[in-house]
Write a structure and sequence with these properties.
The protein has about 160 residues and is mainly beta. It has one domain. Helix content is about 10%, strand content about 35%. It has two helices and ten strands. The strands form three sheets. It has a five-stranded antiparallel β-sheet, with no helix packed on it. Strands 4-3-5 form a three-stranded antiparallel β-sheet, with no helix packed on it. It is globular.
């Protein structure tokens, strides 16, 4: 289907997709497989002892192989967030949604995911609920595939 822009030029809107496969390697394979069991794991550096999530095969600071897998509670606190009410191509959920940096308990770096579980169209409720330091907990999808979207979102603790 063609439309005309303001200058009278014909514009055709199409959507293209390129199927692809990606090899995750043994570290990310285990990291995502554990999602099927509703578990989030990080890895601990034997040199600096930082726990990083998502799990890494080597420490980006020390350049040594990560030695230990650490099971995390799936709870943490928001260190930054943004409410989006505009549709962007490729987003897994329709707007509005909250993207957040979350410092999971026992880790040394932020984890990026969505916060939800309450009415995001109510801006007063969003302002009241979402603060730096808000405690959140992972909410899992009933059917899991071993991917990041197995976590439906993180829900603020204490919201019923």
């Amino acid at each position: 289907m063609y439309t005309l822009n303001k200058k009278g030029h014909a514009i055709m809107e199409v959507e293209a997709s390129i199927p692809y496969e990606s090899a995750t390697g043994p570290t990310w394979w285990r990291y995502f497989e554990e999602f099927k069991n509703e578990k989030i794991f990080g890895t601990r550096c034997p040199s600096c002892e930082r726990v990083l999530v998502p799990a890494r095969s080597f420490c980006p600071d020390c350049f040594v192989e990560m030695g230990e897998w650490v099971e995390l509670a799936g709870e943490g606190e928001v260190t930054g967030w943004s409410l989006t009410n505009f549709h962007y191509f490729g987003m897994p959920v329709p707007p509005p949604y909250i993207s957040a940096q979350i410092l999971l308990d026992g880790t040394n770096c932020d984890f990026y995911h969505m916060v939800g579980g309450f009415d995001l169209s109510d801006l007063d409720l969003v302002r009241k609920t979402m603060k730096i330091g808000t405690r959140v907990k992972a909410v899992w999808k009933p059917e899991k595939k071993g991917c990041i979207l197995d976590i439906l979102h993180f829900k603020p603790v204490g919201l019923e």
